[in-house]
Amino acid sequence: MRGKPASAKTILFLCIACFLAGTLFTGQMWTSPSSHESTTLPVVRHDGGHKRKVIEDGPGDVMEEVTKTHQAIKSLDRAISTLGIELTASKTSQTGGQGQHLRQHASNHSIQKAFVVIGINTAFSSKKRRDSIRETWLPKGDKLKELEKEKGVVVRFMIGHSTTPGSILDKSLDEEEAEHNDFLRLDHVEGYHELSSKTRLFFSTVTSMWDADFYVKIDDDVHLNLGMLVSTLAKYRSRPRVYIGCMKSGPVLYQKGVKYHEAEYWKFGEEGNKYFRHATGQIYAISRDLADYISSNWPILHRYANEDVSLGAWLLGLEVEHVDERSMCCATPPDCEWKARSGNMCVASYDWKCSGICKSVERMKEIHNACGEGDGAVWNVEI
User: Fold this and answer.
1) Residues 137-164: tens digit of each pLDDT
2) What value, to the nearest 5°, has the Cα angle with vertex 259 and ends 253 and 265?
3) Is residue 28 assigned to a domain?
4) For residue 362, is it within any domain?
5) Structural domain boundaries enclosing 95
6) Phi and psi of 381, rounded to 5°?
7) What is the C-alpha R_g of the chain?
8) Residue 204 in this model has a pLDDT that exceeds 90
9) Which residue range or ranges hold the DUF4094 domain (predicted)?
10) Does 271 map to a domain?
């Protein structure tokens, strides 16, 4: 079809309209993507100069990254805490008196293998008690050495020194040691209110001298059947972190002036509360790994007024098996005598009212004759 030719004005108008339309279309093509589309695009981050592409797909991934970071921080915090404890123990052992004492033992004694190391807690004023034990359940002289060599049973009276080293008390103990050779001398100032420190030092010292399965602490006014102790401990030899004794939970004595007063009673809750479960202090045993724990961490182990409570506190927060072994707290005759006659021989015997055998020097032989297992029992135990 032939039409009317377009005018110049019309052509100019069409050109301008096409230009404007092209400009509008081009501008739309160069605008930013929508907010939804931007979350799917890769984001390049820089970490230490290295490019790392992280694809963020949504809120779930962000929370996952936050959780992982939080867990990493907690792990790092635990690692720093552990290193701090080890560093404290290392510094103290290098600069403190106990560290010097243990290094001296390590240099003078090679580590010896044993089944059990028994420390008899004693004092300068207790020579008659020690003699009553030597005359009853403790082998003497060559027999004691033979017991250590053949059965791996090590027994020592553990004691420190007086406030003035080299005093008459220390010299008297030197003479007794030269005669019997059954002492373990600790770098410790003797005193009733220092029993927690002495116990802590005992475990640190013996682990540096003997590699044993068990370590036992017993008081010097308690009767012990060595064979029964060894056979009882042998039942738990394959178990890790074992704490064996007569478990109790006595009242926290907050009244001042009474025996066993706990100055820090407020830490155990309201007045009248009881202690956590722990072994009575007359005799108890712990396995090697627990003794190692005490030895490694002694600078930060808190000491309460009572030594048995202190030990229980040191082990309370660990994965420890508490064994309530009632044969370790028999009463004196007729109780332990009846049990012996019925074939239920006791490990240890004492009087609760005296926290040991009442008048032990006079009665130890009588109790040994009535409740003792016989001198050859320990030699017949299979370990």
Assistant:
1) 999 999 999 999 999 999 999 999 998 8
2) 25
3) no
4) yes
5) 73-108
6) -75, 130
7) 37
8) yes
9) 7-92
10) yes
Q: Which two tokens stand for residue 271?
A: 């007045």
326 in a structural domain: yes
Q: Is the pLDDT of residue 182 over 80?
A: yes
Residue 249 token pair: 């939970």
What percent of the chain stands above pLDDT 90?
A: 59
- Residue 79 is encoded by which pair of tokens? 């690692």
CATH code (residue 234): 3.90.550
Q: Cβ–Cβ contacts within 10 Å for residue 361, how many?
A: 16
Per-chain mean pLDDT for the chain: 82
Q: What is the pLDDT of residue 250?
A: 86
- Residue after which a domain boundary falls, among 108, 130, 160: 108
Residues in the chain: 383
- Find the Cα–Cα–Cα–Cα dihedral 354, 355, 358, 364, rounded to 10°: 170
Most confident of 251-255, 265-269, 304-308: 304-308
Using CA atoms, how far apart are residues 46 and 127, in angstroms rounded to an integer? 76
* CB-based contacts of 324-331 (< 8 A; 24+ apart in sequence): 324/245, 324/246, 324/247, 325/232, 325/244, 325/245, 325/246, 326/246, 327/228, 327/232, 328/232, 328/244, 328/245, 328/246, 328/283, 328/284, 329/245, 329/246, 329/280, 329/282, 329/283, 330/371
Tokens standing for residue 307: 């030594």
Name the domain count of the chain: 2
Quote the tokens at residue 351.
């009087």
The DSSP letter of residue 7 is: P
Neighbours of 95 (CB within 10 A): 9
End-to-end CA distance of the chain: 122
352 in the same domain as 216: yes
96-117 residue pLDDT tens: 444 444 444 444 558 899 999 9
Looking at the structure, do residues 156 and 291 belong to the same domain, yes or no?
yes
pTM: 0.72
In whole angstroms, what is the distance from residue 322 CA to residue 242 CA? 6
What is the pairing mode between strands 210-219 and 112-121?
Answer: parallel
**Nearest residue to 206 via CA among 308, 101, 97:** 101
